[in-house]
Amino acid sequence: MNESEPERPAQPGAADEEDFVPTPFDGPYFLPVVLLGLAIWFGYDGWITDDASMAEWWWFNQGGAVVFAVWGAWSLRRAIREGRDGADA
What we know:
Layout: H1 14-19, H2 30-48, H3 58-88
């Protein structure tokens, strides 16, 4: 070991785990909530709104609603699984 190299912890990432402070953005349900919120927004613009300026974008909004709903459901399922696995540990 060179004298110019700093000492490394015995386990990789051990020092980082001690300093880690979780934020709401680190929660497992943050991404599913954002994705399902976007699905609702796109769905409203694609199927419910009477705004004439949105008429030319109906296909984009309907497609976006489906994509974000599927992605959000998949992400929610994954977050629930992670929660169950973490509770068993």
